[in-house]
Amino acid sequence: MKKTLLLISLGAVAMHAGACGCHSSWYADYSDWGKLQLKGNQLSDKEGNPVQLKGWSTQSLHLDEVQECLGESQWKLMNQYGANIVRLAMNVDAPDAYLSNPDKFKDIVKKSIAETRLLNMYCMIDWHIIPDSINYADPNDYVAESKDFFGEISKYCSDNGYDHVLYEICNEPNCGWINVKNYAEEVIPVITANQPDAIIVVGTDAWCQKIMEPVSNPINPDYKKNVMYSFHYYACSHYSLLGDFRNAQKNIPVFVSEWSAFKFDGSGPFCAQNGHEMIAACEKRDIAPQYVSWCIGTWGGKKENSSFLENICDAKSLSSYKDDNGRKYSDYVYELMPYCYAPDPTILNIITSTEFFINPNPTSGEFTIKLAENIEANVEIVNMAGQVVASQKIVGSASINKSLPAGVYTVVVKSNGGVSTQKLIVK
């Protein structure tokens, strides 16, 4: 395999300890951004600056095999892997799901809202309807139940000052956009009556694939400050939809509330390149000036190829599913998350950093590290397991030529000025 070193610069990273995992200069969460708002089509922080949420979607809250994958310890684990949002997927009309015991599931959702707030994570509440035998899924079938649920949950959030919650009011409808729109315009006022500035994500038709329809027929403009539109993407099945996704970003606020690098049913193969193209389309650029937030599926104990975890939900049970090149799916997902790295506990209290640069980029293996100041520093290259695979002392700058196996690494520069990291990928 040809080895090409691709550097993704993280800037100067200042690490510190905290119950919510680790934070870097470009990791941010509720403690940094506060109540989110829409500025034009861009999801933004309390000051109006663009934000991009990244996190996991759970599997449905009612599934037996998912129960150990819910709760504060799981949200903490997500956060330690870099997530700043949890999407709570909740089937409505499946056997033993929400309609079987509304009070039980309301309590689960409320508890999760409180837990994520303590962790400074955002929380998206998903109302997930299941298609019938002919794949027809109309949220209007349960509009009264939806209004009751979102009315109570938004009132709970308002009463407790929980403004970190986003509402996804109809996941994957399949009944025609006009029906979805009518449903949304009935449910949205129930939420805004309690939280006038709530962010509300509306599912688009055909399982959230027809993202262009709201461009010509948007939700009532009275709710323009509230409404985003969801797009779902399964990399092995929906590659042809990326053109519509890119075009929609020019006109409406979009949230990729569910995606994976597999087929729509969670099975293989693992289509990493198609996934990368979707991620690239979520980044701001001239032709689509919008940072698009996303939640990847899934986090849970259900045995699907697309699950980040397998068997049990802990850090020792990361997915071992590999693509044709031997790349683990868990590594692939981890690389996409905001950077979270603390290889040495002694650096966690350091609050300063040393800026450095790497050139050329990309490189065939040899590269130069240049410090912003002419000082002595120790350079370490660390693999995904936290093992130091190479180290070298430098003064000011030095050329480094190491043969590294394909994978994700971190260059750590330690000096009296602090610690800085830059993430790099060897292919």
Molecular structure report:
The protein has ten helices and 18 strands. It has 427 residues and is α/β, with parallel strands linked by helices. The strands form four sheets. An eight-stranded parallel barrel has the order 4-5-6-7-8-9-10-11, surrounded by four helices. β4, α2 and β5 form a beta-alpha-beta unit. The relative contact order is 0.15.
Total number of helices: 10
Strand count: 18
Most strands sheet:
8 strands, parallel, barrel
Rg measurement, Å? 22 Å
Structural class: alpha/beta
- Coarse shape: globular
**What's the order of the H and E elements?**
EHEEEHEHEHEHEHHEHEHEHEEEEEEE
Distance between the termini: 8 Å
* Largest sheet strand order: 4-5-6-7-8-9-10-11
Helix content: 10-25%
Poorly predicted segments: 1-25, 339-353
Average residue pLDDT:
82
The fraction of residues assigned to DSSP E strands is: 25-35%
Q: Quick recap of the structure?
A:
The chain has 427 residues and is α/β, with parallel strands linked by helices. It has helices at 30-33, 72-80, 102-118, 143-160, 177-192, 205-208, 213-216, 242-248, 272-281, 329-336; strands at residues 5-8, 37-39, 42-44, 54-58, 85-91, 122-128, 165-171, 199-203, 227-234, 254-260, 293-299, 356-359, 366-371, 376-383, 388-395, 397-401, 407-415, 418-426.
